[in-house]
Write a structure and sequence with these properties.
Distance between the termini: 48 Å
Number of strands: 9
Strand content: 15-25%
Structural class: alpha/beta
Number of helices: 8
Strand order of the largest sheet: 2-7-1-8-9
Order of helices and strands: EHEEEHEEHEHEHHEHH
Shape: globular
Length: 213
């Protein structure tokens, strides 16, 4: 066991916020353990089982819930998503930070089950940009896009319950901002963390004006 335990970072944001792309860029230069979620939804084009998600059946997922083998889970647009308990604690005890990329409901469960977890919310700069990104995927019809936009507003209402917030307008800037949060948390740098909390408070006000009126 390492003398210094790794942190548990929970990364959340609405569909289309670019959190997956941002995290992918961050991981190129940082050795962290990325927890791969289980889901019952069908793979999107290009997604690989065991790399992007563990794609499992609804019956299998519900059995794991009953056995207490999920750190958190949630239902989103008719499908289950959740984090298996395996390996996360082991990796943190080895001094390696763990990142979970999960939905808002799941993040709130982690906050309850693991109070030491750090929660970061990723948000696009505007509703117009979010709509453009979702349409640009070309994988869903407009009815589904509208459903995701409505869901995004509900999720953004929860942003105030997160420790930190990153606005993903420029990918490079978002990666840098997230890396700063991770580094300050891992080092326990209270001066930097206080400055980041102040910045987050300002960003939350900005996001509330843009998305919630």
């Amino acid at each position: 066991m390492s003398e210094k335990k790794g942190i548990l970072m929970v990364l959340t944001g609405p569909s289309g916020s670019g959190k997956g792309t941002m995290l992918g860029e961050y991981r190129k230069d940082h050795d962290v353990y990325f927890s791969i979620s289980n889901t019952t939804r069908a793979p999107r084009p290009g997604e690989v089982n065991g790399v992007h998600y563990h794609f499992i059946s609804k019956e299998d997922f519900e059995e794991r819930i009953a056995q207490g083998r999920m750190l958190e889970y949630a239902q989103y647009c008719g499908n289950y998503y959740g984090t298996p308990r395996d390996k996360e604690e082991e990796q943190m005890n080895l001094g390696r930070s763990v990142i979970l990329e999960i939905e808002v409901q799941g993040a709130m469960q982690v906050r309850k089950n693991c109070p030491e977890a750090v929660l970061t919310f990723i948000v696009p700069p505007s509703m117009a940009v979010l709509r453009e990104r979702l349409i640009g995927r070309g994988t869903e019809d407009m009815a589904t896009v509208e459903k995701r936009l409505a869901k995004a507003v509900d999720e953004i209402r929860c942003a105030d319950r997160f420790d930190y917030l990153v606005i993903n307008d420029s990918l490079d800037d978002a990666v840098r901002d997230f890396a700063d949060i991770m580094d300050a948390c891992e080092k326990g740098d209270e001066a930097r963390l206080a400055a980041l909390r102040e910045k987050t408070a300002r960003l939350k006000e900005q996001v509330a004006r843009e998305f919630l009126g």
